[in-house]
Structure to design on (809 residues):
């Protein structure tokens, strides 16, 4: 129980443990749909199978992402990638009835929700699931997504974390509003720049007090926000050195926020390609990459930087000689590539590809983000590698994106988990029934100010 | 109506179960095995009451026949969220989802989201707009939009995705808005979820926009007449569902001793199981279905299950329950084509 109740201190203490979460991706190019064994991305059976396999493997959490507008490519919905996902909380409420222990993490946006409504829904999921709910806080904002909402894209980029912080503070007060399991609740008031909330909350605290808070966002403001508010950060830095660096950075920020060095856990996004031997794993990796980045995907990847159709270019030939028609990349909307300097990038990439003798397809394969987050190797080698992460406390766990639905966790649960358990770095049973317990997080406490407010109301 | 009406269906409001998952499972399984066709989930704000749509979703994977129909607000919740959440409910229940449209005057709900309170006819306008947004978004992916075409690398056929491009109509009382679309989830399994509205919203919400109307009357005596009235207004294409509070003699206790629990406003039946069976038989001659609101979920459900439903089935008054059927099947509705399915698609509003 090394991870339990680590005192608030300015010294980071590694837990010596690794936890797993599974990120069921609904919109992406990483999930293979072209193989015969690829199942449905939307049928409930796929979700049930993944969640139950994860639970068999004692995963701490099951994650769903969120995207509130379909990605577009060159002005139309993006045809090439997996797309179309169920609403996170509705799906998680359904999964709550067919699982017992696994945490249920809903990615939900602070810009396109109302705090009282979202806090109520999350509290509801938390109660229905017996204390297993979490909120992965995202702040993605743009008028383009806002076109699906009454308020439109009402936030400047710079304002979104200020807004998110007020949002989360309000949600925390809502979850904290019941004095006892039977109430009464104290009224929660917030008057801010973007919204006003006046609500008497309806739901009591859950078995884990309130939903666990995850945050996904990587800018300095995003990290500071996590350091102040979150229990876990869903990071983008799984490679060992980057992970250690990220830990250091986050520890400093958490201390700076007055929460102590161990306050925020880290779970980077990751992908595992495993086999009995290193050679087989490498072969499997080729197979996976070929199905992830087909010829059309490779060209489309460049199109989002060039801002124009490039379908006349041979995917097995060199990068296009023509220049991008855009200054800033945003042609695949919703994919997070906004704002790169297109022309500069094109020059750089052409040079790089020429240098290394790479075709469009091989270049794009080498560039796609997930490659950085991949663990490839034999079960034993990867288990050794992860044990080293645990030893130094580089991360608290990994958020695994399976590249195959619904069987993509089978080899991890059947082979990697036992290897990790043998090394003493992975749980051998669920520590309790709530997500907060699985993660070894402390139960929130009311601050004196909150208690005083409770008396006033 | 024909002389030999189609057998009816029974719905039960499952409120009273639901803060806790185990309790909810017990209630919905009891209702399903009793032979109810539909379970409904109230979302009216009350201390301890969890979100109705989530309760319905939780019940999805543990049931096989019963339709799961939450109440979902249309006034203070984002139509885009409402639409995608309901579509998702249809996926997790394998096509057994429906929607009871709520549009209540609620200064509390308005204050919670920092808006001014919506009243009167504007409530109906908000509801009508939200229904239209949902219906368009449900249609915005044609049925066969996911093609998984390996040779061309295309996962979806972009020509089968459509912008909903909804704008609140001229004369909209509240703040006007627009919703772009398409949905973020493929077309629901039923194509369109059945939409149920309380009769009080008819007018601002047109009969063409809905699949069923919930009819209330101030007394049991007036209920059948009220159903006749509503049917005359909406036509036979829209199902009528009579709303009835129920308290039964049970466990050696007379119904009368428990009757005080009703909140009023709805017709109520208090008495014996045999008396209720007779009353429902007469009511089902007028209404397509009846929704029962038991005074005490588990006490009354036990009596309904043991005595009332078997008697109605014996008399041939109930539709058979169909394992893995859809809610549209229960209502006798065809699965509609998407309004966007072809250039000659049915006109606006007809795609329900
Ligand atoms: C690992 C990871 C996962 C994310 N998942 C989502 C998601 O599912 N939905 C979403 O809208 N944004 C998602 N985001 C985007 C973040 O919410 C955020 O908008 C983005 O990272 C930019 O914020 P930043 O400038 O602080 O990095 C994710 C970010 C990271 C790092």
């Amino acid at each position: 129980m090394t991870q339990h109740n680590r005192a608030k201190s300015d010294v980071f203490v590694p837990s010596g443990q690794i936890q797993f979460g599974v990120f069921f991706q609904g919109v992406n190019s990483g999930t293979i749909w072209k193989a015969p064994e690829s199942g449905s991305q939307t049928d409930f059976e796929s979700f049930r199978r993944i969640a139950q396999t994860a639970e068999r493997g004692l995963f701490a959490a099951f994650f769903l992402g969120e995207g509130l507008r379909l990605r577009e490519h060159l002005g139309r919905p993006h045809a090439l990638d997996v797309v179309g996902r169920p609403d996170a909380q509705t799906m998680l409420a359904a999964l709550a009835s067919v699982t017992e222990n696994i945490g249920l993490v809903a990615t939900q946006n602070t810009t396109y929700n109302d705090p009282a409504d979202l806090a109520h829904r999350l509290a509801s999921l938390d109660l229905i699931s017996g204390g297993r709910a979490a909120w992965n806080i995202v702040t993605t904002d743009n008028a383009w997504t806002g076109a699906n909402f009454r308020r439109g894209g009402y936030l400047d980029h710079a304002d979104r974390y200020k807004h998110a912080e007020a949002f989360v503070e309000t949600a925390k007060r809502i979850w904290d509003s019941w004095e006892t399991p039977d109430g009464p609740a104290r009224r929660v008031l917030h008057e801010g720049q973007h919204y006003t909330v006046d609500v008497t909350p309806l739901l009591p605290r859950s078995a884990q007090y309130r939903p666990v808070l995850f945050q996904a966002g990587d800018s300095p403001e995003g990290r500071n926000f996590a350091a102040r508010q979150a229990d876990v950060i869903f990071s983008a830095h799984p490679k060992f050195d980057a992970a250690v660096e990220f830990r250091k950075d986050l520890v400093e920020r958490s201390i700076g926020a007055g929460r102590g060095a161990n306050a925020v856990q880290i779970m980077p996004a990751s992908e595992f390609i495993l086999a009995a031997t290193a050679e087989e794993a490498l072969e499997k990796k080729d197979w996976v990459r070929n199905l992830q980045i087909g010829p059309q995907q490779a060209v489309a990847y460049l199109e989002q930087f060039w801002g124009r159709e490039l379908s006349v270019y041979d995917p097995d030939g060199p990068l296009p000689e023509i220049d991008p028609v855009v200054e800033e990349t945003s042609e695949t909307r919703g994919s997070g590539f906004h704002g790169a300097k297109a022309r500069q990038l094109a020059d750089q990439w052409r040079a790089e590809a020429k240098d290394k003798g790479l075709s469009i397809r091989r270049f794009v394969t080498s560039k796609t983000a997930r490659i950085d987050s991949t663990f490839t190797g034999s079960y034993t080698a990867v288990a050794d590698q992860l044990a080293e992460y645990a030893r130094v406390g580089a991360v608290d766990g990994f958020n695994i994106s399976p590249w195959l639905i619904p069987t993509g966790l089978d080899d991890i649960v059947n082979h990697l988990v036992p290897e990790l358990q043998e090394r003493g770095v992975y749980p051998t049973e669920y520590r309790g029934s709530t997500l907060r317990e699985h993660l070894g997080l402390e139960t929130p406490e009311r601050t004196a100010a909150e208690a005083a407010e409770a008396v006033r109301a | 109506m024909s002389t030999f009406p189609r057998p009816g269906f029974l719905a039960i409001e499952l409120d009273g179960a639901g803060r806790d998952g185990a309790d909810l499972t017990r209630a919905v399984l009891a209702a399903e095995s009793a032979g109810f066709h539909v379970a409904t989930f109230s979302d009216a704000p009350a201390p301890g009451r969890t979100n109705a749509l989530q309760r319905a979703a939780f019940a999805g994977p543990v049931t096989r026949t019963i339709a799961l129909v939450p109440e979902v607000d249309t006034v203070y919740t984002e139509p885009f969220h409402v639409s995608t959440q309901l579509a998702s409910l249809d996926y997790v229940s394998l096509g057994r989802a429906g929607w009871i449209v709520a549009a209540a005057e609620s200064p509390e709900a308005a204050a919670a989201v920092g808006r001014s309170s919506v009243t009167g006819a504007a409530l109906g306008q908000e509801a009508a707009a939200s229904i239209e947004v949902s219906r368009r978004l449900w249609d915005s992916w044609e049925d066969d939009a996911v093609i998984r075409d390996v040779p061309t690398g295309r996962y979806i056929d972009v020509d089968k995705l459509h912008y909903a491009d909804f704008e609140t109509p001229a004369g909209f009382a509240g703040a006007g808005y627009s919703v772009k679309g398409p949905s973020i989830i493929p077309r629901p399994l039923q194509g369109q979820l059945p939409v149920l509205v309380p009769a009080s919203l008819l007018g601002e919400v047109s009969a063409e926009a809905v699949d069923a109307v919930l009819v209330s009357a101030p007394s049991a005596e007036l209920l059948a007449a009220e159903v006749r009235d509503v049917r005359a207004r909406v036509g036979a294409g829209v199902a009528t569902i009579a709303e009835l509070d129920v308290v039964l003699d049970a466990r050696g206790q007379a119904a009368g001793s428990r009757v005080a629990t009703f909140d009023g406003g709805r017709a109520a039946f208090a008495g014996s199981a045999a008396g209720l069976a007779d009353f429902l038989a007469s009511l089902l001659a007028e209404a397509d279905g009846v929704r029962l609101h038991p005074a005490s979920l588990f006490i009354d459900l036990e009596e309904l299950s043991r005595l009332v439903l078997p008697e109605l089935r014996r008399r041939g008054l109930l539709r058979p329950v169909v394992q893995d059927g859809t809610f549209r099947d229960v209502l006798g509705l065809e699965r509609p084509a998407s309004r966007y399915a072809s250039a000659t698609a049915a006109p606006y509003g007809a795609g329900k």
